[in-house]
Amino acid sequence: MNDTTGYVNLLYSQCSVDLESSEPAWFGSQGPGESPVEYGVEPTIKERRKWSPREDKILISVWLNTSKDAVVSNDQKAQNFWKRILDYYNASPLLVGTLPRELRQCKQRWARINEQVSKFVGCYDVALREQRSGQNDDDVMKAALDNFCDAYGYKFNLEHGWRELRNDQKWCSTYVSKDGGKDKRKHVVDVDREDEVREPEARPMGVKAAKAAGKRKKNDTEEEMSQLQAILEMKDKLQKQKILDRLLAKRDPLSEMESSLKLKLMAEMFSSNSQGRSHGVMKVVVPHVSQVTGYIEMSSSSSYEFEERLDEVFDEIFEDTFNNIVEAQSIPQRTRAYVERNREGGHDRLWNDYFSEDCTFTPHLFRRRFRMNKELFLRIVHGLSEWFPFFQQRRDATGRLGLSPLQKCTAAIRMLAYGSAADTVDEYLRLGESTALSCLHNFTDGIIQLFGEEYLRVPTPEDLQRLLDIGEKRGFPGMVGSIDCMHWEWKNCPTAWKGQYARTLNDINVLDRSPVFDDILEGRAPRLRYVVNGHMYKLAYYLTDGIYPKWSTFIQSITLPQSPKQELFAKVQEAARKDVERAFGVLQARFGIVKNPVRTLDKEKIGKIMRACIILHNMIVENERDEYIGYDI
Q1: What's the CA gap between 291 and 278, in Å, rounded?
Q2: How many CB atoms lie within 10 A of CB 386?
Q3: Which of 316, 393, 548, 597 could form a disulfide with 491 if both were Cys (CB 3.0 to 4.6 A apart)?
Q4: Residues 451 and 479 reside in one and the same domain
Q5: CB-based contacts of 317: which residues, under 8 Å, 6+ apart?
Q6: pTM
Q7: Where on the tree of life does the source sit, at the highest rank (predicted)?
Q8: What SS3 class is residue 289?
Q9: Among residues 166, 189, 208, which one ends one of the domains?
Q10: Could you give the C-alpha distances from 473 to 528, 540, 579, in angstroms and in order?
Q11: Would you state the pLDDT for residue 47?
């Protein structure tokens, strides 16, 4: 500090002096506006004051209210804007008895709050997108804090500021991240789903197919045909030129028709000359022909013998080109060889193993491999063969019987039960891969059309009353079931669609797309009456975990129970809600295609496979319900 002052005073001492001026000249080391320097006295250093959470909240509130001013808002100079913020902050009644803050301190503190909160918003959004089933808000907050610490190397200690700013519309629309990009969070827009007409989305073209389509060229046959067409056009032009030469060489007066023909030919000749051809000389070049290596010239003085020779040359060229095209065309080979699989033997083997009177395998093994009893399977086969032509056994053109309904339905059930590839049933059932896939998709379509209305219906009054009785016996009167979500990986998902299905469909997003609560929203929910803790209720409810929203129709557990009553409620609620988890486990254990990543390419077929598995599961439960240990109701 002393060195700097001495340097400035040295500059003062080196300035030019006006001797005629009335102002006194300063030749010392002390400037004209400086007070004497007291050496040996240390300058006073102000004590640094920390910001408390209450002061942060007051500063945030002042900034938000000043920004929302309807008259001036942010459209003013920064100095005036922050001066108003400083006046409002120091005038707060919550800060009575404290030292007032300076302008620089408020600006620095707000910049720190804005920067750290903006960074934490991104970390919280990442944790929210990765929220799994069973996690509550505390778990998401903990994951967000961990993400912030891992990304920036220090802990986030402005949670109070984030809670003040996170839901403020003015701040969310104006804050800027560190990279300079504005907030990209999407806002929810209400859409009338009934009026929205969505066309079925086609599968996009792959990367390799798109590149091949852009670089596709003509094949050899197309090139030969274009050469042949060029020869015919050239011969036609030479014929017209010969006619024009004869008309020009004629000495007698031309008739009206000949005059019009001459003018027409001359006009065509001039138009061809304007396209780059030389006048009086025509050139023909044909590759892959050994007779013609250069060009053929023709002038107006051509003789009759030369014309005949020219016609012969063109005929030879035309014949050779045509022969090359015919020889280049080969008979297309079959894409796959025919395999005699002896499908009759496959049917006989299947019948003797499972369906004859003295079958090889016991009913227990049939239930294990077909996932259902033999009576239920035969009921499905009979219904499909009666209503769907695909499952009817017919004869081909040679009079030979095709695949039996038992073979087709068994192939579909094996693929659903074990989740195996299509060609794994070839060795036992004797049907190819493409036929097995066709059996699978026709089987799912038939199950949905034939049994969907009965086994995938809205609960009837009898079903609803049975569910209410079970819930009341378990300690939850008015409960009709539990709500949860199950994920199914799509292995062959197109690259263009991965953003729609990769780690974005959590329980909340699936709930928004689900039609489960449409009846409740439209006022068609079943009316009932039950009493809990002396209060009368009229709507049923479901048990859920912590990820679902706080709706009146959702009853969630207590995250951190404190009293014995809360601990008992959390224990009973979580035990009752595990029914839906067990249902998903049974569905995945029964049908391996649902447990493993799906390999189907069509999105619509994937949905039909899942619906068919749920319908079959309900049919199996109904068929085997008497064997279960039920409730005494």
Answers
A1: 24
A2: 11
A3: 597
A4: no
A5: 231, 286, 289, 291, 292
A6: 0.51
A7: Eukaryota
A8: coil
A9: 166
A10: 17, 15, 15
A11: 62
Q: Last residue of some domain: 423, 455, 487?
A: 455
Q: How far apart are CA 448 and CA 455, in angstroms?
A: 9
Closest CA to 623 of 370, 368, 374, 411: 374
DSSP code per residue over 104-143:
HHHHHHHHHHHHHHHHHHHHHHHHHHTPPTT--HHHHHHH
| CB 543 within 8 Å of CB 479 | yes
Residues 515 and 419 in one domain: no
> Are 302 and 242 a contacting pair, CB within 8 Å?
yes
> Distance of alpha carbon 164 from its chain centroid, rounded?
33
- Quick one: DSSP state of residue 590? H
Token output for 567: 């601990």
* R_g of the chain, CA atoms, integer Å: 44
Q: What is the DSSP letter of 36?
A: P
What would the pLDDT profile of 494-542 be if each residue is shown by its tens digit? 888 777 776 666 666 777 677 777 776 666 667 788 888 888 888 888 8
Give the list of residues 6+ apart from residue 245 with CB closer than 8 angstroms, or none.
300, 302
Q: Are residues 462 and 451 in the same domain?
A: no
Domain identity same for 518 and 414: no
Q: Dihedrals φ, ψ of 353, to 5°? A: -80, -35
Q: Give me the sign of the Cα torsion angle 405, 408, 414, 415.
A: negative
Number of domains in the chain: 3
Q: Tell me whether strands 479-482 and 541-544 are parallel, antiparallel or unpaired.
A: parallel
- Quickly count: other Cβ atoms within 10 Å of residue 463's Cβ: 12
The total of other beta-carbon atoms located within 10 Å of residue 87's CB is 13
The range of the structural domain enclosing residue 561 comes to 458-600
Phi then psi for residue 555, to 5 deg, are -115, 115
Which class for 415: exposed (0-12), middle (13-18), buried (19 or more C-beta within 10 A)? buried
Rounded to whole angstroms, how far apart are CA atoms 273 and 279? 6
What is the tens place of the pLDDT at every residue in 80-100? 788 888 888 888 888 888 888
Please say whether the beta carbons of 502 and 562 come within 8 A: no
Rounded to whole angstroms, the Cα distance separating 619 from 450 reads 12
Query: In 359-436, at which residue ranges do the beta strands (DSSP E only) sit?
Result: none
- Number of neighbours of residue 569 by Cβ within 10 angstroms: 16
Is pLDDT above 90 for 443?
Answer: yes
33-62 tens-digit pLDDT:
444 444 444 555 556 778 888 888 888 888
